[in-house]
Amino acid sequence: MKRGKIIGSAPILLVADVVKSADYYRDKPGFTYDRFWGVPPCFCMPRRNGYIVLLSQVDDPKHIVPHYKVVPNMWNVYFWVDDVEAIYAGLKGRGATIDYELGVKEYRVKEFGIQDLDGYDIAFGQDLEA
Question: I want to staple 46 with a disulfide (CB 3.0 to 4.6 A). Which of 25, 51, 52, 72 is the partner?
Answer without folding.
Answer: 25
